[in-house]
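Appendix B. One record, verbatim.
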Amino acid sequence: LYGLYLYFEFSSPSSISDDEEEAAELSTGASLAVLVFTTVVIAICSEGLTSSVDGVTSQLGISQSFVGVMLLPIVGNAAEHFTAVTMAAKNKMDLAMSIALGSSTQ
């Protein structure tokens, strides 16, 4: 399904989309600085989240397998889910679908 979606996205003419191209507001250097900063912050948050699994599983009495297979992916993809819903609310369904499909294939 995802492969078919990618084929459609790359083979369809750009005239199908009614979205206007948005001009870049940040320079390349500023964009890279923001990217590096957010990567570091996410790495720190991710480390804190995964290191707290032992304490949570012992206090709540649930298995580490359940936390690793069910809870961590839901929490990890929360930002993607929020972004997909936000784009759908802005009537940018192509972007919302690509985010949702990309998130679900992970």
